[in-house]
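for the recovery benchmark. tokens below, seq after
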């Protein structure tokens, strides 16, 4: 089967499955989000997909084929534990790289682990690395053969690739829309010199809309219902942003001299 089709299938399947996992995890298991007792879209996109999980499934699928011949016969359990560790480390690395790209280039923090012990810049932490380890073990022991079976089925039923194409048609439209939103948020983040914590920002917008509905019920209309993104930043940015470290030209020169 065409390798590109394999990658497209894995990415789409992983993205949707990851979105479902995150949806239920945040609702019932997340130490912070579960306290809100609300169903929330865990992704930046409008649709039900998280690309980081799609990329992760590709990585897990590829790593699922590695083996250590010297260990497989003498210490098969140890071999699997090492494979799980490599998978978890790879997922943590993907999470870190993705998180830092969005923070440094778009000034947007898509997830926030700053309240968890041992976190690094709020984008990775030991607790979620442990979750990645458990997910890697589950994939390897339970799902890997199923994924290979699905790919084998797909190779014999290529007409199903139409649905993959349909998925990516919607996905591309969503990416275009979401990038436009990201550009607007980045412009405001640059103006106020902050990094926006997206989940907190989205939560604040939800609270504003709900408050507007409650007020409209009694007073026919509410000023909050027409509040602009700039007004949201003016009034509430301390709820969903952190001050960005901005280096002046003099400081940049001084740092270069020290190096």
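predicted aa per position
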């Amino acid at each position: 089967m065409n390798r590109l089709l394999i990658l497209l299938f894995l990415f789409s399947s992983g993205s949707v499955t990851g979105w479902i996992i995150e949806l239920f995890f945040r609702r019932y298991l997340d130490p912070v989000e579960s306290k809100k007792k609300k169903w929330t879209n865990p992704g930046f996109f409008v649709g039900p997909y998280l690309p980081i999980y799609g990329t992760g499934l590709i990585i897990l699928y590829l790593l699922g084929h590695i083996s250590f011949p010297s260990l497989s016969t003498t210490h098969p359990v140890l071999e699997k534990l090492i494979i799980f560790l490599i998978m978890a480390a790879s997922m943590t690395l993907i999470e870190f790289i993705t998180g830092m790209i969005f923070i440094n280039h778009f000034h947007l923090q898509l997830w926030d682990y700053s309240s968890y012990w041992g976190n690094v810049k709020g984008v990775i932490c030991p607790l979620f690395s442990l979750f990645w380890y458990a997910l890697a073990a589950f994939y390897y022991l339970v799902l890997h053969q199923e994924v290979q079976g699905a790919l084998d089925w797909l190779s014999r039923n290529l007409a199903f690739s139409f649905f993959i194409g349909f998925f990516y048609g919607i996905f591309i439209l969503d990416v275009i829309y979401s990038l436009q939103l990201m550009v607007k948020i980045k412009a405001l983040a640059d103006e106020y010199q902050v990094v926006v914590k997206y989940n907190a920002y989205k939560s604040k917008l939800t609270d504003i809309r709900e408050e507007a509905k409650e007020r409209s019920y009694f007073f026919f209309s509410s000023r909050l219902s027409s509040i602009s993104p700039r007004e949201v930043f003016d009034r509430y940015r301390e709820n969903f942003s952190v001050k960005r470290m901005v280096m002046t030209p003099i400081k940049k020169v001084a740092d270069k001299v020290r190096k």
